[in-house]
Amino acid sequence: TASATVTAYDGYPMSQQGKSGQALGLAISSSTFGGLTSAIVLLFLSPFLAKQALKFGPPEYFMLAVLGMSTVIGMAGNNIAKNILAIGLIFSCIGMSPQTGLARFTFGQVSLMDGISLIPMLIGLFGITSILEMIEGIQKVPKVKEVKEKVENFKEDVKENYKKVKVVLPDKEMAKRLLPIWVQSSVIGNVIGIIPGAGMIMAIFMAYDQASRRRPNLEFGTGVPEGIAAPEAANNAVVASSMVPLLSLGVPGNSTSSLFLGALTIQGLRTGPTLFRDTPEMAYMIILGFIVANIIMLPLSVYYCNFLATAVLRLNRMILSGIVLTLCVTGAFAVSNNVFNIYVMVFFGFIGYTFNKYKIPQSPLILASILGSMMENNWTQSMKFADGSLAVFVTRPLSCALLILSIIFIGMPLVKRIKANKAAKAA
Asked: In whole angstroms, what is the distance from residue 229 CA to residue 50 CA?
């Protein structure tokens, strides 16, 4: 899923190191922490935070998107040029123009009128790319004897390394080490969740970026615990906090809360201040449901992961890749029952494969594709609102604060790199 994108950056390398159980344990415990904090925020601060969210207008949303894009620089490390190169804002321009209503970059394809669907794009970048890399690893057809030897070696490998995956929850020492990251990421997730339309993707990228800044001594992307803890705490923190504007004001924050609004309407309930006034037992029962669900999630996740992870790792990689390919094609088609999504998936599969070949990161492409339309729409509205004056971004307090944060996020890595280059030359 899109919300698990960043978890794979450190989760997969950790699994390759034979620490699948620890990686799963970190993901589960971090998710529980983030989910519980957002449920508590929903319980105590709903009305207050919902009023703050109403202060966000087009200039604030535009600067929020810019802030999200600034994390691309923060996550770049030594590949700032490659990260900027990979910013795929062009993909967010495909579809109907919000200003003119005319089709852009659709090349006569009706299926592109609504833009590129996120799910087929992600399936291509992750699923198809991995299958193409596996195909590349297959060389000439081996002899029968070699095949038998490989099968025997595979069986021994399974017996030795994959007897049973056991989820290992963080011990006291690890929990103490991750607590600052959990708190920081949960705060990011809660803030992003409360702002209608901001989205979970922005939260996980920002949380990962801030975790890497907090721990500059660690090499993120190689299997560090903080790289799993940050996005998992953030994405679960978004879930309950996105209900704040819905329950307090009747304004759905995202597509999930829109469905929730429909469910409440069917039951004859009206969201907003009247929900707490007229049916407080129902309002607080919903909030209690979030708390209980997050508590139950911990033991259930541990139980199911112990069973399912072992079963997955025991599968032959060749067979598993075939299953993955089938699921990829089915998943891409099922988004809108459109065959065109399969072509989109294959296209982005080759893009992801090329990116990996030249060590160009995929995260800027994903983030820019998501935030591009948000930036464009709110830029247009801001310019109409301010009669074309750029001063609107600095005269409004929230917008100005987000602008300053964006400049800091972009400037810090660049300053560090300049200092490092000077130190290297001096040495």
From this structure: 27
What is the Cα–Cα distance from 161 to 149, expressed in whole angstroms? 18
End-to-end CA distance of the chain: 46
Profile the chain (427 residues) by mean pLDDT over runs of 10 residues: 85 89 94 92 77 80 85 61 63 82 84 85 88 72 56 55 77 94 94 77 88 88 93 91 78 70 80 76 86 92 87 78 89 88 93 85 78 86 89 90 87 79 85
DSSP 78: T
Question: In angstroms, how far apart are the furthest CA atoms of the chain?
Answer: 76
Amino acid at 112: L
Q: Specify the pLDDT at position 310.
A: 81
Query: Quick one: tokens of 91?
Result: 């993909």
Closest CA relative to residue 62, chosen from 190, 197, 206: 197
The count of other CB atoms within 10 Å of the CB of residue 150 is 11
For 391, the token pair is: 């001063």
Q: Which two tokens stand for residue 114?
A: 């609504």
CA 43 to chain CA centroid, nearest Å? 25
Are 115 and 92 in contact by the 8 Å Cβ rule? The answer is: yes
The one-letter amino acid at 302: V
Which positions ≥6 away from 299 have C-beta within 8 Å?
none
- Token code pair at residue 348: 């982005």
Q: CB count, 10 Å around CB of 321?
A: 16
CB distance 103 to 413 below 8 Å: no
DSSP secondary structure string for all residues of 338-393: -THHHHHHHHHHHHHHHHHHTT--SHHHHHHHHHHHHHHHHHHHHHHHTTT-TTHH
What whole-number distance in Å separates Cα of residue 239 and Cα of residue 38? Answer: 7
- CA pair distance 390, 280, nearest whole angstrom: 45
The pTM of the full predicted model, rounded to 2 decimals, is 0.77
For 242, list phi and psi in degrees, rounded to 5. Answer: -70, -15
User: Six-digit token pair at 222?
Assistant: 């190689």
- Report the pLDDT value the prediction gives residue 244, as an integer from 0 to 100: 80
Cβ neighbors of 348 (< 8 A, separation 6 or more) are: 120, 121, 123, 124, 125, 128
Give the whole-angstrom CA distance, residue 386 versus residue 391.
8
Q: For 240-294, give the DSSP string.
A: HHTTHHHHHHS---SHHHHHHHHHHHHTT---SHHHHHH-HHHHHHHHHHHHHHH
SS3 88: coil
Tokens of 241: 């906090």
